[in-house]
Amino acid sequence: LHVYDGCQSWEIAFIVQAYCSTDLVNEFAPTLRKAHEFIKRSQILEDHPDSEAYYRHRSKGSWTLSTADNGWSVSDCTAEALKALLLLSTISPNLVGEPMKGERLYDAVDCVLSFMNKDGTFSTYECKRTTSMLEVLNPSESFLNIIVDYASVECTSSVLQALIMFREVYPGYREEEIRKCIKNASKFIENSQRKDGSWFGTWGICFTYGTFFAVKGLVASGRTYENSFSISKACEFLLSKQLSTGGWGETYLSSETEYALMMVFASSCIWYKYLSVQLM
Is the pTM of this model over 0.85? Predict the structure, then answer.
């Protein structure tokens, strides 16, 4: 059974964000232009025609993990694509192409907000619809708790970041709903922190991955190392796990090192208590 044809939209959204965070936009303008066009083409423009019959969540305005042909909207994939588009809209069209029309950005925000659970959190493919009692029906031998779409720190953080960025560019659109969403999402992230300062990562990469997204969301909502106990605890946790090689994870080649460094930079704690950390 083939469910996905890749993870193109997810990966390209992060690649675009990475390029936009550097001073290399002019040098890599052709790459960004192509990526921009791909993201615009990959947005789902209409809901599935039989969505109600099949209990499908809204898909209009969303992005999938891979391509529009996949058809299954995902909250964090939509949020990260929206972030990439908003960043590209700040760059000259002569370099990266014309920005996406405002109406389609509104569709993306409408779709993102439709994913919001009653408590202001976000799951992946749909809102949380039932209780964990249904997990008894789980047919998988390798994945736990997959019948119910539970809220996750990662999805909630991605949406939080996207809405904050969107609000800066389009301050009047669904302003009150976005304000409440940001407030509730931030609280959820803070309340989900473990005693050791970490956050659990839903997608199996676990604590470094979960902590990376959590801190990014908190920083976007105005928390800093200086004013947030959650962020300072996260830095304590992460830097206490650094290996003798300088990296994180199983080896210094692990992708965990990338997430760890991005989190440290995001929280700015590197400039405070941990100036002795060597960044290789």
Answer: yes
